[in-house]
Predict the structure.
Amino acid sequence: MNPTLDWVSRAQKPSGGISAWRTTEGWGPEYPEITGYFIPTLLKYGEIEMATRAADWLCSVQFENGMFPNLHGLPAVFDTGAATEGLKAIHGLTLEKKYKKGLVLAKSQLRPRLLAYKYKSEPPVLARGQGVMGMAPDAAMEWDTKHWFGYVRSHYLAYWLEGLYRMGVPSATILSHHMEGLVLSDEELIQYEYARGWVPLKRIGGDICATLQFSWLLSLLFHDTDAEGMQAQIPNRLFDTASHYVQEDGGVPLSPSHPDKSYSWGAKYYLDAAFALKGRHAFAP
């Protein structure tokens, strides 16, 4: 098992839920969002038992109406979308009725809420949920020209672009219309925040998780567009730079300036990027 996958196995609590983070004080609380969207990643690596335990825990914390809680115990649309993704993946493998039941309930709540989401000034993170649901891009396509006000975290921008990709927006369109002018930090990482037009807020620095997200996403986009030469090497370069900050125990911190706290969503996108770029056995001895 590679160090980051081993870190995730330790992040998974006896309940089956995956902890949100680890600090010097120990593991954080189980998090439905990360537990849900970690399931497809675990399945890619053949970790069926871990994925099944995660799905069982999700079913145990789902509200009766089908929604899933956030870290504060409140029903949340983004978290429900991530849980829906996980239940869909595990049901596709096992065909278990309990996963189908949870999936149908979640979709019944998720779709009307996502249809009512018009972006406005809010971060575009829910585009990812719309992608999970296979909805049309519509307002999400115009978010950057109509509603991108102030600085927005690159972590959220990556969710938005991932959502567009999942909704079937052509890779060439995403690259040419929504990612032109992307600027890296001094550490060669994706900047933590950007304003419209990919203007970076340089005083904050780079985001390791966002760099891994873009490494994974760009590997898909460039593959679809048959990119060659220096352009095709960008995902590998981003991955190698972010990998430099992965801790000895496999944990992935948020930024170079906060190495004492590692996050499960960073671990997820590290594993996704590694799988896309190097394959399932990249870490084999």
About this structure: The beta strands are 21-23, 26-27, 152-153, 193-195, 199-200, 262-263. The mean pLDDT is 92.
